[in-house]
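INFO  loader      accepted 1 record
INFO  loader      residues=190
INFO  predictor   begin
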Amino acid sequence: MKMGNLKNSHLIEGIIWLCGVVVFFVLTYDFNQPIEIYKFGATGWPRVILGILLFVTLGNLFHQYRFGSATQLGRVGIADEDEEDDNTPSKVAIVKIVAVLATPFLYAMSLKPVGFYFATPFFIISIILLFGERRARWILGITLFIYTLLLFLFMVVLNAPLPQGNVSPFYDYSAFVLRMNTQFQQLDLW
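INFO  predictor   done
INFO  writer      dumping tokens
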């Protein structure tokens, strides 16, 4: 059976992502409760995110079926040909992989003492730096854009409470952001 340009590594990666989607979707039934102010209930947004992840995983498998891992202009990462030349990853590559995987865990651990409002920009900057961007204007611009988008989404659109932190001065910064949001929402713009 011809599988296009799919390799076993592509299939294994796709199966792992699909299993993750299925497991987390099943787990959403544990907290499937109605919410008075949100008609989709507590599982609405988690299931939307899982749907997007499913779509991206299937799209990635389709892309790999058609094109494999051939080097493409503008594609980040390495091609299969690059992997075949040297099967032993360098120590720098291993450290980068560990750092990229550890950064979200450190971010999650910092949310309780530091809070979302203070920790998020540093998390975004860390990820951008780990992925190799070194131009200060791009780092600052991308960080401000993503941070503003997240604040708008969670504070204005969803009106969702976020971890504020419990250690000063981080808590004070969170309180300042929340006061600014309250003042913004009290403006009569319409």
